[in-house]
Write a structure and sequence with these properties.
This protein has about 170 residues and is an alpha+beta fold. The protein contains 4 helices and 11 strands; from the N terminus they run βααβββββαβββββα. The protein has helices at about 10-20, 25-30, 85-90, 160-165; strands spanning about 5-10, 45-50, 55, 60-65, 65-70, 75-80, 90-95, 100, 115-120, 125-130, 135-140. The protein has a 4-stranded antiparallel beta sheet. A 3-stranded antiparallel beta sheet has the order 4-9-7. Strands 1-5 form a two-stranded antiparallel ribbon. The protein starts with a strand and ends with a helix.
Length: about 170
């Protein structure tokens, strides 16, 4: 296995800026779990809910993970819902697959990974995710570029910031 990344916690200041939920903020920040694989054969790193989440059918929530990822050039972190949530409740990411580029780490928002999910249940099922339970998974993928690629732009921002570089 190639080792090419580290997960880190965002600063408390960034957390206070991004976390808009009414709860015990110190407890949320201090009890946050770092992403990890469940088994040595697992490809995905589980991301854990920072607080209790109740998601009724057709509801959407943007979940601040309190996590950033520093990875080597040539790698991307792809974020998906946990398979069980997708299978049981049709939980989906609103952008289908989250793409975390290696330069996102250096953004003004510290590269804070925020995952927006929707309960797309067709069976009227409510999703209950307890604080500390896995709700998403991230998989590292190596990528290439074309021989004639000459991009020199740099990112400085969060979601949609690469569009501003063009």
């Amino acid at each position: 296995m190639k080792r090419m990344a580290n997960f880190e916690k965002i600063s408390y200041e960034q957390f206070l800026n991004d976390f808009k939920f009414d709860c015990d903020l110190e407890n949320v920040y201090n009890s946050m779990k770092m992403p990890k694989r469940a088994t040595k054969g697992s490809a995905g790193y589980d991301f854990y809910a920072p607080m209790d989440i109740v998601l009724k059918p057709d509801e959407t929530i943007a979940i601040p993970t309190l996590i950033r990822c520093k990875m080597a050039d040539g790698w991307v972190l792809k974020i998906y819902p946990r398979s069980g949530l997708g299978f049981k409740y049709r939980v989906q990411l609103n952008n289908t697959v989250g793409i975390i580029d290696s330069d996102y780490y250096f953004s003004d928002n510290e590269g804070h990974i925020i995952v927006k999910i929707t309960n797309d249940s067709k069976e009227n099922k409510t999703v209950n995710i307890k604080q500390g339970e896995g709700f998403a998974q991230g998989i590292f993928v190596e990528y290439g570029i074309t021989f004639d690629d000459d991009v020199e732009n740099e990112r400085n921002g969060g979601f949609g910031s690469t569009t501003k570089c063009m």
